[in-house]
Amino acid sequence: MIATGKALSLVNSRVIFVSSLLFLIWWPAANAQNATTPEKAGSPYYARRNAWGIFAAYSGDSNHMLLGSAEKRRLLDFGISYNRRLLTNHIVNWQYSGELLPVALESDPLSQVVENQTAPTVATYTYYQGPIVFCAPVTQPYTELLGNGTLFSSGTYTVSCSNRRWTIGEGISPIGFQWNFLPQHKLQPFLTGHGGYMYSTQPIPIPTAGSFNFTFDLGVGFEFYRSKSRSVRAEFRYHHISNDDTAPQNPGIDNSLFQITYVFGK
């Protein structure tokens, strides 16, 4: 009963959180009648009402930037985005932003174990196991005894990262915002942030973690308008993946993600 109560409490808190964010998305749009309408002919603004994008994103490494601890993870994403203008003035273009990732690839380094046996004979054995959290080499001594206390074998184990495994998944970030500054200029700096989930075909980043993970990102970049209906975004994001302790282990993954998006709309 206690576990059930905790689960219901967790579900309720997430429902409230998501509902609050959806309200924050709806409220400005519902009160945008007095906002500038940049799509009118002769408008000085580069700010579309609706915009769709096709993007690719890549990160070649991960480390403990903020919340995650899994090292040397790579990400490669291909997806589509949708932005809806909420409010625009001469300072900022505030937009709802959502993303869909039909292809979300994550790569984990595998563990290499080197056994250096020193007794009763000298020998070296190398074998590979599943992904591990940390990649710095770790050496530990071992001693194995028979039932009567006689030495059976001894030596050291050295565990490090070698080779890697790619896992395919999909994801969606339905909660997000983007703030473009200086919307009267063709080159606009912006801030962005998203929240969502990723589902993979096997647990990531280690076997005892989950296949279902929550994601969020925060980013900065520039959007260059080739015309009032076409633009290109280049951005850098802090990207986090974790299972929120819904699996036995939750090392989490922090990546520095670089993303390019081609955008069109009106």
Write the layout of secondary structure elements.
Blueprint: H1 2-30, E1 50-59, E2 74-88, E3 92-119, E4 123-131, E5 138-145, E6 151-181, E7 187-200, E8 212-225, E9 230-242, E10 253-265
Antiparallel strand pairs: 1-2, 1-10, 2-3, 3-4, 3-6, 5-6, 6-7, 7-8, 8-9, 9-10
Describe this structure in words.
The protein has 266 residues and is mainly beta. It folds into two domains: 2-108 and 166-265, Porin (Beta Barrel); 110-163. It is built from one helix and ten strands; from the N terminus they run αββββββββββ. Strands 1-2-3-6-7-8-9-10 form an eight-stranded antiparallel beta barrel. It is elongated and about 90 Å long.
Q: What key phrases describe this protein's structure?
A:
1 helix, mainly beta, Porin, disordered N terminus, 266 residues, elongated, 2 domains
CATH topology description of the largest domain:
Porin
What's the CATH architecture of the largest domain?
A: Beta Barrel
Q: What is the domain tally? A: 2
Strand order of the largest sheet: 1-2-3-6-7-8-9-10
Q: What percent of the residues sit in helical stretches (DSSP H or I)?
A: 10-25%
Distance between the termini: 53 Å
The ordered string of helix (H) and strand (E) elements is HEEEEEEEEEE
Quickly name the level 1 CATH class of the largest domain.
Answer: Mainly Beta
How would you sum up the major sheet? 8 strands, antiparallel, barrel
The rounded Rg comes to: 25 Å
Counted beta strands: 10
Q: What fraction of the residues are assigned to beta strands by DSSP?
A: over 45%
Structural class: mainly beta
Detail the poorly predicted runs.
1-13, 27-35
Mean pLDDT score = 87
- The coarse silhouette is elongated
Helix segment count? Answer: 1
